[in-house]
Amino acid sequence: MSWLRALKETTRSGLKVERSRLEPLFALRATAGLALVVVGTLVLSGPEAAVSSAFGAFQAAIATFQRSWRPRPVLALASGSTLAVTTFLGYLAGAHLLLFLSLLAVWTFAAGLSWTLGPTVGVIASSNVAMVLVTVTLPTTVAEAAGHAAVIFLGGLVQAALIVLFPIRRWGAQRDALADALAAEADYARRLRHDPTAPFDPAPLMHAREAAVVTARQARKRPSELHGARGLAERIRPVLASLADPAVGAAAEGPERDRVRELLAAAGSVLDAAARAIRHGDPVDLPAGAVAALRTPDTGAILTGPAARAARRLAVLLDDVVETATPDTAAGAPRTVLARLALVLRRTPERPIGGGRSDPPTTAPGTVQSDTRPIPLIRPSVPELGPRAARTLKDELTQTGSPYLRHAIRVTAVVVIGYVLGHYLPFGHAYWAPLTSVMVMRPDFSQTYGRAVARFGGTIVGVSLASAIVYATEPGIPLSITLVIVCAGLMYLLMRTGYVISQIVVGAYIVFLLGTIGADVGQTVYERVLLTLLGGVLAMISYAVYPAWETPRLRTRLADWLVADGRYAAAVVQHYAEPAGHGSSEVRQALLDARAARIAWQDALKRAETEPVRHRGLSRSAADGAGEALAQIARIGMLMEAHLPERGTTPVPAAARLADALRESAEQGARAVRERKVPDWKPVRECLDCWDGEGVPDRVVLRGARLLLDALDELSDALAPSPPR
Questions:
Q1: What is the DSSP string of 17-63?
Q2: What is the 3-state secondary structure (H, E, C) of 286-343?
Q3: Span of 176-190, 223-237, 358-372, 595-609 with lowest mean pLDDT
Q4: For FRET with 532, which of 4, 216, 593, 693 sits at 20 to 30 Å CA-CA?
């Protein structure tokens, strides 16, 4: 992509206004916290303390709106406490330019490097640097520095207290994540009716897994319907795929296919009903049509072999999903609907299914052990995060090509240069330029350039409107505080609609807030806009001069995904060789690694699409073809996983050789991808040639192995150089 086109794309994304679901109650609570702190400190301590407390409360509320699974009070306290400490040091060093620049460089470098710990930590750290740049302009003495830091911390404390005292939709984010995962599987089941090999994006399942990681305290208070449904959703997906795929499931046409379509439609309806119940905390309301489809008594007579086994497993899992999705409030109610579905699903001519919570569990072949209590995924406490974060940051410092290290160096240089230029330019208020830089700069190209354009456009509008109001009305302190609170409320309400909208409100917020103590009245709109433009231009130039392009790393990301997929497929195949020697935990971990590698590849490919860099050995068509082939490998592994043999099943010795060949070929293939060569799958091919002369008791593993080889060949074809024209 050329630079001109890249600039057009990033400008369009930066100025984009999205239609997003507003959350007025959350915005009202955050605004109330800010108003309580600002008005209280204004009455007790005066305007300067009110301004400091406003920064603390404002930033703490912003932290609670970040996409994090940490408890919201913890985020508010973390933001308020870290801002208080950095601001206190800023007050002490603010009178000495060289000392302040040294501290500013250290803070900014740490904030830039903190993005490796996650976007929430990066946003909080970067916002702290931005707030320090503003707050040190407030007139104060060294003796008063601790007082200002204390009221900043008070702002975060009040926001955290309001979240505890006035909770809004407890566990709402976790409910939405789990409901989205079930709804995605419902959509997947319906798409499988028309396309038996339809793709499935695992992102909703990954998102639900992240939401399921809780603290030890949260694990004791989590609603029952959030305990086991995610694990059931994970197990349903391969069963749906194996039921629909003609290679291992029902025939492509005929009565079997018709019955499978009915089951898939019913499964989609049941999963949608469970998703609605979990999202709103209501009892499950099953659609009559789905129950009627599941009541059809001839399933066992129509479906045979792997298809029948998948249908039985699907029935048990749907039963458990419905029961798990029932909230605590309905636990003591008559289970008419649930009992009806359980009886329907378990009555098949072939054998009773069993496995529900009201029946004794069964371990017969083809059934599912469902009466197991899920073990919660425990999130480490805040004190435990310190050593882990230190190790992560230390490792990041040793990686010379790390995009986060490059970002830290880049943003530090820009902020220091911007502050120096702003200090010596005849505009005053040197913080506007570095404030813009630190707020718009991100580790990747598209966000940095898009946010820079949005910041400039939003500042022009917001600062112009606010300055016009100030000059026209000359508001006193009460009106200025009122305008500050209104701007903060609009910011919280419209935060998710687009960065340019939020910058309009933030620009006005800063003007009104500093105007409360007369700290910014003398600066014209023209000067503010010029300094904002300076900060944005510095940020954009820095990325062009010292970039961290994602495009050259695409082959490495692709190779990582290939290795992860190979290990996942090998873990599944190994289970056929030793049914009693390998538990599902090994397969599960390999699947999670493969999903993480896929998400990393997709994110990298998305970032690379907007970069003004040539493909450097991996064209767009090659990347798309390779991605489809690797997704196919994961899908085939999932089909085989749906039919993992139970303990006591006859082992397939040749599967062990195939598993070793898959691991070896994946490693060699990844090395070839990194070296811009075409991978060769000779070990896998030789294994399959040997299989043709052996008797294989389980035909699923042999079919899956052949499909895996076909997918690997498709990957090689995608990466092969195009013939000259």
A1: -------HHHHHHHHHHHHHHHHHHHHHH-HHHHHHHHHHHHHHHHH
A2: CCHHHHHHHHCCCHHHHCCHHHHHHHHHHHHHHHHHHHHCCCHHHCCCCCHHHHHHHH
A3: 358-372
A4: 4
The letter for the amino acid at 103 is L
What is the C-alpha to C-alpha distance for residues 348 and 344, in angstroms, rounded to an integer? 8
Radius of gyration in angstroms for the set of CA atoms belonging to the chain, rounded to a whole number: 29
Lowest mean pLDDT among 57-71, 80-94, 103-117, 290-304: 290-304
Domains of the chain: 3-169+382-394+403-545 (no CATH), 173-221+223-375 (no CATH), 551-719 (1.20.120)
pLDDT of residue 137: 64
DSSP state of 116: G
For residue 377, give the 3-state DSSP assignment.
strand
Q: What token pair was written down for 493?
A: 């309400």
How confident is the model at residue 492, as a pLDDT? Answer: 92
Is the dihedral angle over the CA atoms 646, 647, 653, 656 positive or is it negative? Answer: positive
DSSP state of 213: E
Expressed in angstroms, the distance from the first to the final Cα of the chain is 23
- Per-residue pLDDT of 544-584, as tens digits, reads 899 888 888 889 999 999 999 999 999 888 888 887 654 56
